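Human: Here is a favour to ask of a fellow structure person. Comparing notes only helps if you start from a blank page. Give me a protein, with the fold worked out from its sequence. Please set it down just below, with no commentary around it:

Assistant:
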Amino acid sequence: MRIAVAESSADIARCFPVMSQLRPKIAEGDFVALVERLARLTSLRIAYLDDDGIKAVAGYRISEWLAGGRYLEIEDLVTAEGARSKGYGGRLFDWLAAVAAENQCRQVRLVSSVKRVDAHRFYLRKGMALEAHYFSMNVGTAR
């Protein structure tokens, strides 16, 4: 088992089948270009856990804000459907927390849909706290 950061287009493409289980609206043909664009614009990185195939994938970035200082934001964290409840997501989460510590981050942060109750239980078990409400509003016709 190893955890690595997807450094090439081929590595990113290998992560698509797992990521698409969480983000089914992203077309396979668009995935690599989208990740590469977000990497340039927002420093997004894709990490994956490989254990005879990719078992878990996470999108993350290190950022900073006025109110809370430096943090690692987990944008997406998903374990392959057939590999859930086997510790892969937990190992990848722990790896991300270690990356945060290595980069002098004060926190690991994420936004999770109110509908993802199982994910909420997972994050609470990992020691995360529910600290804020996240608000959104659709504007215009952009998608």
About this structure: The mean pLDDT is 95.
